[in-house]
């Protein structure tokens, strides 16, 4: 009897202990936040949260902080931090053009000009008069998936024009050989997010052609403009303006050989629609645009502009690097690249960061760059054995982090001399970037949160809807009491149905920020 009784008591104690655990965990989540997380629309979803006081190290809020979540674009917090550590906030990318051959007294180069791609992510195409890199809240790299994208006003060919002007001032009037692009800084790879997918050391306008489609009057052709302009392109437009209540549906097709067609309909009164097309070959794209820039500045190039890049003409890499320079473009500081990447969630640039970090150390591959990131994260106190990354942008199948690891990184970054560059780069709640519309204009938490957003979803073909794999937010919050928190917030696996959209989930994350901001 006694033995049976003791076992019964033990079972009761175990049951009581287990029943207490959820309550303890829930006590770390304010009731109104818990109510939102447990609402019917999130019945199948999983939530994770950790918020820590930067000054005291006290854990304020916590839920599933040691569990793995798909981080989506909050991955960029890690890749940008690693690149900042590798390059420094004040690093400038230098893109030289060298010459192979001699220049005679007539200004004729009996040889080639070679642009050595250095990994400059914008190549002058977004640089403002004040030396910053411009952005819009909806970046053009996302233009083929919606109607919120906008162009920055800067000339996307500004960097190439700068180089061409320098070459003309150097006294070169004619290039008897060719114009080449040395893209051997690192091995080519594919990005892990939406937008342009090819990663390369040379980017001109993100290697995109932008098409702006503007409605006219119903029954008349729409107006279609594109940039960068190039004589090598043959653009055919077949877009009609339809009645105000008509459907807007546009597309761009690449037929090869520079022939591109724009098709569709746009409703009268509809705001201009932006669509983009990725250049099939970055080197050929850059070469053509550089030759045309040289021509505009009075430099004649004997080689045809509209031709595939003759990669076999490049001399060995070590020889190229020793050739005399005739021009050099210098980028804004890397802190500006970080700001562009984090503000608009620039997948292409973020995916390139591990490759640039690898190249900084004399290496060439994505895996080598990610191993460098592993070393950085381990050094600064992130529990690297609990997380996984397959790229720099957040769309890789192997990307998983814990709220704890994200907060470990954020707490470390707050101790660094370059912290202000890092924090300044993050979107501001209700103000700019991907957080611009997450709360209303009168929100008490407006501009009190700087954080990276993340969105990842897949088509649910069986049910004709989508599954939100991840909606995420990670960064810093100044509460109504003036305390600063480092926080990470994730929701994974929410079916998008019955009116639930990625935008609606983003507003729910904004609402959670408001609730945490107002906590006593």
| Structural class by secondary-structure content | alpha+beta
> What would you say the CATH architecture of the largest domain is?
3-Layer(bba) Sandwich
Q: Tell me roughly what share of residues is in helical segments.
A: 25-40%
- Rough shape? globular
Which residue ranges are poorly predicted, with pLDDT under 50 across at least 5 consecutive positions? 1-26
Annotated CATH topology of the largest domain? D-tyrosyl-trna(Tyr) Deacylase, Chain: A
Number of strands: 20
For the record, the count of structural domains works out to 2
Which strand order do you get reading across the main beta sheet? 2-1-20-19-18
How can the largest sheet be summarized? 5 strands, antiparallel
Report the mean per-residue pLDDT as an integer.
94
Question: In percent terms, what proportion of residues is strand?
Answer: 15-25%
Radius of gyration: 26 Å
Counting DSSP H or I runs of 4 or more residues, the number of helices is 12
How are the elements arranged and paired?
Elements: H1 2-26, H2 31-37, E1 46-53, E2 59-63, H3 75-87, E3 94-100, E4 108-109, E5 112-116, H4 158-169, E6 174-175, E7 179-182, E8 189-190, E9 198-199, E10 208-214, E11 223-227, E12 234-242, E13 249-256, E14 259-267, E15 273-278, H5 282-296, E16 300-301, H6 317-320, E17 325-330, H7 334-344, H8 347-360, H9 366-379, H10 403-413, H11 419-425, E18 449-460, E19 465-478, E20 484-496, H12 502-517
Parallel strand pairs: 4-6, 5-7, 6-16, 12-14
Antiparallel strand pairs: 1-2, 1-20, 3-5, 3-17, 8-9, 10-11, 10-15, 13-14, 18-19, 19-20
């Amino acid at each position: 009897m006694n033995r049976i009784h003791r076992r019964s008591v033990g079972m009761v104690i175990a049951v009581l202990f287990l029943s207490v655990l959820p309550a303890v965990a829930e006590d770390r989540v304010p009731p109104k936040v818990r109510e939102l997380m447990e609402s019917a629309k999130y019945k199948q979803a999983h939530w994770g949260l950790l918020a820590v006081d930067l000054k005291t190290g006290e854990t304020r809020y916590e839920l599933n902080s040691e569990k793995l979540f798909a981080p989506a674009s909050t991955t960029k917090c890690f890749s940008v931090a690693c690149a900042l550590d590798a390059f420094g906030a004040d690093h400038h990318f230098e893109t030289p053009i060298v010459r192979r051959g001699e220049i005679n007294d007539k200004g004729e180069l009996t040889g080639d000009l070679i642009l050595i791609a250095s990994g400059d992510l914008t190549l002058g195409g977004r640089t403002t008069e004040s030396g910053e890199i411009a952005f819009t809240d909806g970046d053009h790299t996302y233009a083929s998936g919606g109607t919120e994208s906008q162009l920055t006003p800067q000339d996307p060919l500004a960097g190439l024009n700068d180089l061409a002007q320098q070459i003309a001032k150097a006294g070169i009037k004619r290039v008897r050989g060719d114009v080449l692009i040395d893209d051997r800084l690192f091995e080519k790879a594919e990005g892990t997010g939406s937008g342009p997918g090819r990663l390369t050391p040379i980017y001109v306008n993100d290697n995109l052609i932008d098409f702006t489609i503007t409605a006219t009057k119903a029954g008349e052709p729409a107006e279609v403009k594109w940039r960068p302009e190039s004589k090598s392109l043959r653009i055919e437009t077949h877009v009609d303006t339809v009645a105000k209540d008509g459907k807007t549906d546009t597309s761009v097709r690449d037929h090869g050989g520079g022939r591109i067609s724009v098709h569709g309909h746009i409703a009268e009164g509809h705001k201009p629609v932006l669509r983009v097309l990725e250049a099939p070959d970055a080197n050929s794209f850059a070469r053509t645009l550089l030759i045309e820039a040289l021509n505009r500045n009075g430099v004649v190039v004997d080689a045809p502009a509209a031709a595939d890049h003759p990669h076999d003409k490049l001399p060995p890499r070590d020889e190229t690097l020793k050739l005399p320079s005739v021009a050099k473009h210098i980028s804004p500081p890397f802190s500006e690249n970080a700001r562009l990447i984090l503000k608009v969630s620039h997948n292409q640039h973020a995916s390139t960061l591990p490759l640039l970090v690898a190249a900084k150390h004399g290496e060439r591959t994505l895996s080598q760059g990610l191993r460098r990131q592993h070393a950085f994260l381990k050094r600064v106190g992130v529990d690297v054995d609990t997380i996984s990354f397959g790229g720099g942008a957040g769309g890789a199948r192997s990307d998983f982090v814990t709220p704890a690891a994200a907060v470990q990184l954020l707490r470390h970054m707050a101790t660094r001399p370059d912290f202000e560059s890092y924090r300044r780069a993050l979107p501001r709640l209700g103000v700019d970037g991907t957080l611009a519309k997450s709360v209303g204009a009168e929100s008490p938490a407006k501009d009190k949160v700087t954080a990276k957003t993340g969105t990842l979803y897949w088509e649910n073909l069986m049910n004709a809807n989508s599954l939100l794999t991840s909606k995420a937010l990670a960064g810093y919050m100044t509460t109504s009491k003036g305390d600063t928190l480092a926080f990470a917030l994730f929701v994974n696996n929410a079916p998008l149905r019955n009116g639930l959209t990625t935008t609606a989930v983003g507003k729910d994350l904004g609402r959670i920020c408001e609730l945490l901001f107002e906590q006593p």
